[in-house]
Amino acid sequence: MYIAELCIENFRSFGAGDRAFKLTLTPGLTALVGENDAGKTAVIDALRYVLGTRDQELLRVDEADFHRSSGGGPADQMSIKLVFRGLTKSDRGAFAEFLTFEEIEGVKDVSLVLTWSAKRWVTGASRRAAAPEWRTGAKADGALLDFEARSLLTATYLRPLRDAERAMSAGRGSRLSQILQHTKEIKATGVAFDPAAVPSPDPKTLSVLGLGDFANQLFRESQGIRLAGDKLNDEYLKPLSFAKDLLRARIEVSGSGDETVRLRQLLEKLDLTLAASAGDDSAHARGLGSNNLLFMACELLLLAAESDGFPLLLIEEPEAHLHPQRQLRLMAFLQEQAAKVRSDGQRIQIIVTTHSPSIASDLHLDNIVLVEGGCGFPLRKGMTKLDSSDYSFLERFLDSTKSNLFFARGVMIVEGDAENILMPVLARLLNRDFSKHGVSVINVGGVGLGRYARVFMRANPTADGQISTPVACVTDLDVMPNCAPEIVGKIKSGEEIPKRPPSKRQWRVKSEFTSEELDERRQTRIDKASGQNVRTFVSGEWTLEYDLAHSGLTHEVWQAAVLALADEKIHAKKVTREKAIEARAADFLGLADLELEAKASHVYALFEAEGASKAIGAQYLAELLEQAIDTGSMDVDALRAKLPSYLVEAIAYVTTPFVAAPVVASESEIAAEEKK
Q1: What is the pLDDT of residues 337-346, one digit of tens each?
Q2: What predicted TM-score, i.e. pTM, was given to this entire model?
Q3: Which residues of 651-665 are buried (b: 16+ CB within 10 A; e: fewer)?
Q4: Cα–Cα distance measured from residue 580 to residue 593, given in angstroms and rounded to the nearest whole number
Q5: pLDDT (tens digit, 9 = 90+) per residue, 82-124?
Q6: On the CB side of 198, how many CA atoms lie within 13 Å of its CA?
Q7: CA 295 to chain CA centroid, nearest Å
């Protein structure tokens, strides 16, 4: 049995109707990802309200739990609906009177539909909310789910920033004792203690209760314990007793009562700690992270060993106190545990919330749900625009750096290191700081731009809604001006451009396209990774560096390229930046009379023909532009005017639009207008 559908209405940030939170789930592991305040914790808390938790934590409905619409008061009622499917034979027996018959894609089956609801009391009532109801039936019109049946649905919950060491410590009602008491190994292993047995039994063959009884006998035979007991009874309790009601004390290990109580009392005396190493029983203090792993391992031990009850594990922020490598180990382990089948035929369903890019990068996309804007968007096959090859590709290349896209308020996908370095700097200089707007830049390295973009595109947006995160894909047109092949060394001086075909050259020039064909090429690139809230921005001319030089930053890009060529000497202090630029100043002066396309091509040739690093060049260009803004030699409006329009538009799309400066008429225009 597993939770297949979840619908939350009027609970905290989730509204009702079209604003309700609706999510379909699959067996196994599900990870809820997204930025802060997206609603991930609200989903977990909703499940806790309906199901309860095994640590028997009392959850009370508060007025703050009722959703408040914009500008309105709190809702009068909230509801949480769960649909359980995949019921085993034992599940059908346990919930027989509460089941609902349904037909899905022509197949008839039974499910357990449970609706939890709570009403808010009117102002002045002694309580803030009425007692919740657990009703069954497809329309919440069935029988009330009784306490005994609800107890079979309780979930295991691991809170964020949990104190694992405390949970594993000895004490009354300790979580460790609760876990161990229900494990098969504790209950079914070993034999009872027989005080009359000769010779005395081997302690290793005894059950836990047997060990307690054996210890009691040893304590009773201990001279120190016996003398202390006699003194307590004779000198203190006897004077306090009545003649016919003698008070007598007995010092024991396992307490008194039936076997269940005695076993619990024994287990409450146990601590769980980590050894220093394998085979080493010495005490060793471990950190919070290691103790968290120990805690989770114990909870999974219980869930895997049980033969009844609903095996659901809720974990908030499993990455708490764990370094990235441990996080990867943990998620691989959780995915493995979720795939195992228990003795009762069920699999453990695990729902986690996380803010960790490391964890997100190690998950299968089928296991991820993006929570955004009060909605849940599963990324599994059939729910996105991704095809099967996209899923295979992304599971190979979606690393911890790229998985930042799951936690961003805006995403910019670029195809190279230069864009990755330069775009955040340009945005900051234009007063659109990516960090302030929650924008992540994802560098896909020239491959898979469309694949990453389609993560944010829904297969059926009409039914499932759209992800509202703005996603900008920045790519090159890759068509060079007609003069460029000779300038950048693609062909020799005076040589004609080889025809395509039979030439196998990959590069293209403008003369090979009509204006309509060039527009079609640009539109094809736009359409490849655009749709819903994903937009592609294509360079106006050729590549990033060429377009920057062509649009108004010719000298700055040339300087950056020269510095990139001299980078090793600069860092070795063999030459200063000023000297490196001065040494080639004549080269730039020689470009003065050239047409803009030829001038920009010569600047780009420093990268293409002379081998200047585009990434290092981007670093130098960023520094040059920052210096220009800081010194006042260039202001923000001037910089924006010098940038290629596609870069400005992409930055505006993932942050906020630029407001056009008011047009100020010249004196001649004013005079002409007055004459009219």
Answers
A1: 888 887 777 8
A2: 0.82
A3: bbbbbeebeeeeeee
A4: 23
A5: 999 999 888 999 999 999 998 887 888 999 999 999 998 765 5
A6: 1
A7: 22
